[in-house]
Structure formats: C-alpha cells, structure tokens
Amino acid sequence: MSREGVVAVALRVMREEGLERVTMRRLAAELDTGPASLYVYVRNTAELHGAMLDELVAELDQPAVQQGEDWREQLIRLLCSCTELLFAYPSLARSVLVLRPSGPHYLRLIDTILGLLLAGDVPIRQAAWGVDMLLQQAISMAAEQGSRDEAADAEGEERALAVAVIEAPSGTYPNIAHVRDEILSGDHEQRMRWCFATIIDGLCATR
Amino acid sequence: MSREGVVAVALRVMREEGLERVTMRRLAAELDTGPASLYVYVRNTAELHGAMLDELVAELDQPAVQQGEDWREQLIRLLCSCTELLFAYPSLARSVLVLRPSGPHYLRLIDTILGLLLAGDVPIRQAAWGVDMLLQQAISMAAEQGSRDEAADAEGEERALAVAVIEAPSGTYPNIAHVRDEILSGDHEQRMRWCFATIIDGLCATR
DNA sequence: CGATCGTAGCGAACATGTTCGTTACTGGCT
DNA sequence: AGCCAGTAACGAACATGTTCGCTACGATCG
C-alpha cells in the first residue's frame, strides 16, 4: 500500500468504469481499508487526479527533438497526441483543467515542448510563457470536445452554448448571427490543429 | 422566490464570504427553505455558478465598437477587464473554467469580441474560432493568478508547479532550467496583455 | 534500555451535492 | 362542478470528500 499503489488502482478503475467511479471510498474498498487511510498518500482528490494524469502522460511517447525535421509539425503532433490521450477521459481533463500538474512526466512534457519552441528560434520569454498556453489549450480542448460524446446525462449542459448560439436572434447579437455557420464548423481534428497553429503563429510573430 | 432571487442571494453571499460559503444548504437557509427546493430554479451547482458569472459579466461595461480607435487595444482592454473582474472571485473562475457559459450577458460579450475581431478584418472563421480561445484564456488566467493570493490553505497546491520548476535539475530538464528565469517573470498585468496579444497575433497571421 | 515523537492506519463523524417520493396548489379542460 | 396535469416546495435519504481523534508501531534520541 503506497502512493503508487493507490494511483495504479485509481487508473485501473478509471479505465474500466470511468473517472466517476473513482471515489475515495471505492479505492479504499478496493484496497480493503477505509477512506481516511488514503489521505496518507494523497492530499486530496485533486492531487490524486494530477498523479493519474502524470501516469497517463508517461505513456506518451515523446520523440527526441529532431533537428532536421520541421519543429512546428513535430510540436503540433505532440500536442495533438496529448489532447487525444485525454479524449478517452474527458472528466479527467476537466478535473486537471483547474490544476497545475507538476509530476515528473508532466515536467518532461514541458521540457520537450520548450525544446521544440527553442529549436524554432522562438525567443526565450515567449517560449517560456507560451508553454502554459499550449498545454492549457490542449487540456481544455479535451475537456470540451471529449465531454460531447460522454455520458448521455450531460448532453444538454455544455451544448447549451451551442444551442444558444444557434438560436441567437440576429437583432440582439448581430455578430454571432453573422458567424453562426463558421462557429460550429470543422471537426475536432481540424480545430485542434488550427488552435495550436494559431498560438504558435502568435508566438513567432515579431511585434 | 425565483431563479433571479436565488442567484442574487448567491452573489451576495459570495461577495460577503466567498464562493466557498455559497452552498446549496446555505442558500436554502438564507431563503428559509430546504436544499431541494432550489433545484426547481437551478439544475445544479455548475449552472448556478454559470448564472452568477453571467450576472457579473452584466456589470462589465462594453463600449460599442469604435470604428476609429485601435480595435486591438480595445479588445485587449475588454479582455483584461474580464480577467480582472474574475480576479476578485478566483474560485468562481475555476468553477466556470469547466463550463460553457451561455447566459445573455455572456453572449453579449461574445458578440462584442466578435465585432472587434471582424472590425480588425480578421477572417470570419478565425474570428469565430478565436473567441473561444480568448475567453478561455481570460477565465483561465483569473483562475490561476487569482488563486495565488486566495485562501492561505491552498498556497502550496498550485504553486507546486512553480516549486517544481525552480528545483528542476538541469540535468533531467535542461530546457526548463534554461528558461527558469523567464518562466516566472513579469507581473500578471504584463502576462495578461501578452497572452491576449499573442493569440490576436496568431489570429491575424496569414499562414 | 527506555522514553518520545512522528507517521501509518483507521473508524466515526460532519458538511456537502443531489435525488426520490410526496404534498399542496393552480391553471385549464371536459 | 369535477378532474387532471404540471409545477413549486420540501423532508428524508444517499453517496461523496474530508477531518478528527484514536491506536499501534518503529525509529531516534537521551
């Protein structure tokens, strides 16, 4: 019984039954103990989720920076694979969104992204500040897109914005009405790549 | 007793004692009833928070798009005021981060931002997709920065990343070590403006 | 060798979000 | 008038996260 053990059980339960079933009591039962015992290894649920993410990120293969290849394409590929990794567990993405993960594998990810940006001659400060934006964007996209096809009970919740946008009267919200067709266009693959590319463009732009 | 009434009480309690105190039971007690009664007007806590945000956004003054003025500066100012509005209630920002707000005032905000982007000749699709990024960024910055000086109990939680970054051994994470000084530099005012400017640059970039 | 202290471990408890089943009431339909 | 359907309202209940206080034990120090 250790922190690693708790996280491992948590991951297993999540893979089998979803994050919703990963409760302290459930984990405790799985480990033949009471809920309070888990707090020795994990400060709270948020930290547990962070640890779970870190373990997931570990499975991500991060190819070493290839000097010859196009760094932009490499970076976008990496970010896309992050997002897709979280697509399978949208509720974990939502949970991690309000976190600032700091596990070793997550740090490795940050380091790799930084390396790619620096390889692209992005100025140091812009690179440093940009990593956060890129990762936040990746997690955020997983949280949004993934929850779309998740549990049927939440279908009307986040889609409320989409509905509101579609029904927005052109008198009150002229601009929304004007872009109505564009705002919901594109599949997530396209939007994902576009979002990352946009931020990277912004980071490269010499203002 | 109505939805507006519930939201009003919730806002008052939040202003006086913080969002943590805004519990269903507390609101119910404030309205001399039981917790279950609130669910007639509000689907769940998330929706309540969304409604609270919408009310806050209503207080934001959104100047009509001034054709003559610099649209970029106007847009950045607007986004900054959004972020600062949420600075006072970081936990609300965190809660809203996983939401897709869709209240009337929030739609108005979206419409205004869209107007500014279109006024800047940003292509329609880029504008439509960009609004989300900008608002997500605004809320996210409030959630992160604001929680820094919030309740003292959470001090070590989100700062864990900062600590990890500072202590990152340069052997394992060379790039992090390389940008260490830059990654924590700048006050939130600077970073805020920089983030928005970066995204806008990306939206303008003709790729 | 003995005392002390920090920590694992745990049972019970508390506050919270949410749901269920039930009651009262009000509007409209026959 | 009589009936019905939808809704406000609510009390009780359940599952959850988290904390408190207690026990046991092992290491560390006098």
UniProtKB/TrEMBL annotation, chains A, B:
Please state every residue range assigned to the domain named HTH tetR-type: 1-60
Q: Which Pfam families match?
A: TetR_C_1, TetR_N
Q: Which organism is it from?
A: Actinoplanes xinjiangensis
Any GO BP: negative regulation of DNA-templated transcription
DNA-binding region(s), chain positions: 23-42
Q: Does the keyword Signal apply?
A: no
The alphabetized UniProt keywords are: DNA-binding, Transcription, Transcription regulation
Q: What is an example of a GO molecular function annotated in this UniProt entry?
A: DNA-binding transcription factor activity
What name is this protein filed under? TetR family transcriptional regulator
The record's annotation in PANTHER family points to: HTH-TYPE TRANSCRIPTIONAL REGULATOR RUTR, TRANSCRIPTIONAL REGULATORY PROTEIN
Q: Which superkingdom, per the lineage?
A: Bacteria
